[in-house]
Amino acid sequence: MRRTLLAVLLAVAAAVAAPVNGTAQPTAPTPSVTDREPGNGPERNEIAAVDPITSQLVLAQGENQADRHQGYPRRTKLRTFPENPADKAIKLGLAPYHSLAPKLNALQQKSNRISVEVAGQSGLGRDLYLVTLTAPESPLETRLQERFRASIEEGRNVPAGLYKAPIWINNNIHGDEWEGTDGALRVIERLATSNDRDVQNLLRRSRIYFNLTANPDGRVAGTRENSAGFDLNRDFVTNSQPENRVMQEIVERTQPLMMLDEHGYSSKTLIEPTTPPHGQNYDFDLYIKHGLANGLQMEKAVQALGHPETAKPEIPFRDYPVGEWDGWAPIYTAQYAMYQGAISYTIEIPMRVNRGDYNSQPVAELQRRSKINTDVVEATIDTTLDYVDDNRRNLIAGQTEMFRRGAAGEAQRYIPDGFVPGFGPEDRFTTEFPRAYVITGDRSAPAAARLVDQLVRHDVRVERAERPFTLGGKRYPAGSYVVDMHQPKRGLANVMLEQGSDISDKAPVMYDISGWSHRLLWGASVDVYKSGPFRFDGKPVVAAAPTGDVNAAPGADLALVLNDGKDVNAVNDLLSRGIELRRQDDGAVVVPARERAAAKEVADRYGVRFTTAKPGGVALQRKVIAAAVSADELQVLRESGFEVRTISTAVLNAGFDWSRIDALYVGAGLNYTQLNPTAKAALDEFLKRGGVVTRGATGSKFNADAKLLQATSVAGWEDANGVVNVVNGAGPVGTGALPHSFVYAPQWFTNLGAGVTVEQRYGSTVIAAGHWHARDNGTGGQDAAAGQAAVVSGTSAGGARVVLFGTEPMFRNHPKGLYAQVARAIFWTGTR
Fold this sequence. Notes:
The protein is of the alpha/beta class. 31% of the residues lie in helices and 19% in strands.
């Protein structure tokens, strides 16, 4: 007999946690070396970004997104897109993007088990499809499931027999790794239409969510990146891209017990869990027992396909050396999803069909490979569905326990050697969670508001103080923000706010970046309260309070200090209106008193704060930048309000009009020695009047080749990366900068000529968090960089003002507190 809602709620109150268990025996290890995919290595300095392709696609407004309490099915009449014969999937015998909506529309007409919602749009306006497979639910039943989900997030037990296990399958996040979408389509159609009783029972006990293609623009174009040139699987704690924001919303909304992120290509099939270092904020004991067990089950399923190419899958935790496929950074889908409560995996299917192979292999061979890859995707999904169904009580109990530990503020558990086969001291990474973080606008009000909004967006709980309070002997004003670390998702809160660790000695290599910190790099003032009594009067934050202000006497000129990217937005907004501004030696920008109304408008728009100006300053005009940059740098410059013309060696050789350019930014794709005589002469003429800002190896080489500043660049270890300690100088760029910066393949400068100013030096202890050791020959290490010039400025013999960055102030749109440094450099170099 069907249970009444009252009976169910009574069951919720009376339920007890199921025991957590589950282990599996590993197969014999087969050591191997991973097939590395491109990250931001040498190509970051070699390949210049170009303007994103414009699109005629019409952006939807989210009208198809269902209320989370609406029942199932949720039928959406999807708009269809014109057939595109240039879609790169067609050659592989795979589903082109334009075929997806008709397929999903037909399945919705045929089955009441499938629901499709438009979860958002890509950068070029293509719809992102969230497909849900589950048995029909009334709105009342859906509300009950949401109540169970919320109870689990609070660390409270629910009746596992009544909770529908959520599973999330993410596909095609890298556009030229196509087959996740096609394997998912196979599973979707079978679950939607099969008359098999086991399928029907599975859907009564589960909700299975598919992000059908996470990167449709890349899928169509055959590119790893999205239309803006970003690797979406590096953007999760920053979520600067629309596709990442959709994925982040999906995982928070669905709270999956288990998830797969379907990728390619790793010659033998790669199935996580990862090697060490494992993220130090995980409750790793709750992850690894299921992570390894289902990994082993997926391995068997892939082997059972019978393809010779899939006979020996690899599980990094078991098979790879430390660091070669690590689980350290929360920038990846799978590693981020763990902080949202999921047992998660990156799956790398085996047969390469992209890049050189796409063009060199016969079509028949490509389609053979794609068929094998699609089989692998289908096998990993089917195995995961079975594993969750067989272990749902333990998985629900484990997710509940993770959130309960967070809410209770309990310490992480010690995991003994052999907890699962192969677990040893090299796997043991832990942290001590502080009692709270306090965020204030002491340094930058816009930065504090941005950080708070970012935390709230990621389902981190933040409170705003109703009245002044004291914590750790420090008095805080009303309006300060507090992150109480006794909260369910404390791991996610901490991975965003803590400093991180120097893991240079804990792994010989790392797959990608090893340091990040919203606290140190986003520009807000954040205090750490480690332990002790904790009381204050606060209210939960939905969005940060407005921060804009004009605090100057009537009739006085107004000053805006460039501490934050929002300050830069405000200045560029005013300049775009033709308002006459002045720039002072300390970098402050002065708005004349007569423009107070405009200042008030931009203060409200960007959250910036104007104060009374000091006398003096030189005229500041709007800057037009010629930029040879990577995609992330281009996005930051444009988001900051600069007018940018993208260039490269090829663009300049084809002819370029320098007449309206004020400053040149060189970070990627420009080689002075490869310019033809006409292009070189035009550039040299510009260098007599315009400014130059450079970054990285390409920028340093340009400086040397063009004979701008006397400064010898020294390259640190090429794989070094992370948050670094810096000491600021008093020049136009270093004044007021943060005491931390970010590096990736760092540089420093020696043999400085007369008139070259050190704007920033590396600290005596260089790495605050990250991975940086010396090369095998002893060069390029932290010791060599300590105290050296990281950023310098000066004037060339020809009269060009120049700033050289050995750091990465715009890396992947992440270190937002460093953007003002770049703006200061542009305004200083571009002003005579």
